[in-house]
Amino acid sequence: ETGVTQSPTHLIKTRGQQVTLRCSSQSGHNTVSWYQQALGQGPQFIFQYYREEENGRGNFPPRFSGLQFPNYSSELNVNALELDDSALYLCASSPDRVGSPLHFGNGTRLTVT
Amino acid sequence: QQQVKQSPQSLIVQKGGISIINCAYENTAFDYFPWYQQFPGKGPALLIAIRPDVSEKKEGRFTISFNKSAKQFSLHIMDSQPGDSATYFCAASRAGGGNKLTFGTGTQLKVEL
Predict the structure, then answer these.
(1) pLDDT tens digits, residue range B70-89?
(2) Are strands A103-104 and A87-94 parallel, antiparallel or unpaired?
(3) Residue range A16-32: average pLDDT?
């Protein structure tokens, strides 16, 4: 059974640029969530996708957007990058949209300079 | 607004000792309380979880104690080992909130020989 995989593992961008992060969910999981983890902090919920539709969103501005594909893989897009966007971005998948434990990938470390 | 408060921020325990990490929550709608373990460079991994219909859950050396009236829950690691050295996060989610987790700020545990 393949776990949650994320790419790339590390990324450096300049303020104002756009970035796309990718996630392959665990086999059999139809729900994907994205979290932002600043250094020394707990993960913060960005949004969740269930069967290709956004199914819940945290307190993040619209420049954070996402997609989920028919194979349940997902992308996180961030436009107009700011220095405060520097963080570890975690993808988590679960077998259903409610009441299911989350299985996290190892994240993408984004640095904005 | 921090809805899940975690303490202590860091903890040093001798090998074989008991590690105790505490969390308090504010939102009485929370009904699922997991603990995650995170090693450097890795994503969080689910350790153990509890729902408020029970006051305690044990899995191996890990025990969650839950006090609904006080809105507090804690993680006990018995016979702590150097391999347990990691950052631990408590979290909570509410019914109808999908799989959105609200995390605490983390406890960095070091188990010394």
Answers:
(1) 999 999 999 999 999 999 99
(2) antiparallel
(3) 94
Inter-chain CB pairs, A–B, below 8 Å:
64
Do A33 and B94 contact (CB within 8 A), yes or no?
no
- Euclidean distance between CA atoms B50 and B58, whole angstroms: 10
Q: Is B91 on the interface with A (CB under 8 A)?
A: yes
pLDDT at A84 over 90: yes
Test A102 with B102 for CB contact under 8 angstroms: no
Check if the beta carbon of residue A75 is closer than 8 Å to that of residue A19.
no
Q: What tokens appear for A97 in the block?
A: 């949209």
Question: Residue B98 and residue A48: Cβ atoms within 8 Å?
Answer: yes
End-to-end, the C-alpha distance of chain A in Å comes to: 37
Q: Which of A6, A90, A95, A103 is nearest to A45 (CA)?
A: A90
Q: How confident is the model at residue B18 (pLDDT cuts 50, 70, 90)?
A: very high
DSSP A70: T
